[in-house]
Amino acid sequence: MRIGNIYKIPMNEKDGITVKGNYKFRNKLIIVLGIDSKNNFLGVVIANSHINLLHHEFDFQYEIKQEKYKESLEKDSYVDCSMLYSVNQDRIESEELDTIDMDDYEAIVNKIRKRPDISKRTLKKFNLL
Length: 129
Hints:
Elements lengths: L4 E7 L14 E10 L4 E7 L14 E4 L12 E12 L9 E2 L2 H12 L6 H6 L4
Antiparallel strand pairs: 1-2, 1-6, 2-3, 3-5, 4-5
């Protein structure tokens, strides 16, 4: 597991993800932004190809292009920088699908740094300061 890797992981209501129907989880793409001393990673979810403005803060969405990430994206998509997830690496059930490039990584991290509700302690814990 490396910073910038993109993985597909099962997520559910405990993670803040809405699961519809009789399903217990939804597979979501997540980008590893940082790793702590216990090998937990901090990540952001790659959201849908459109933004539901009722549920997402537009200023904290970052578009990534399918042409750059052909191994993981079917179409242009948005990274939802409004929520961070601390996930134990045991939840990763697949090989990395792709790796985000440095320009996109920096743009995502900069959006996260601007969030007033994310503490400097959390940013420091995952080496994002």
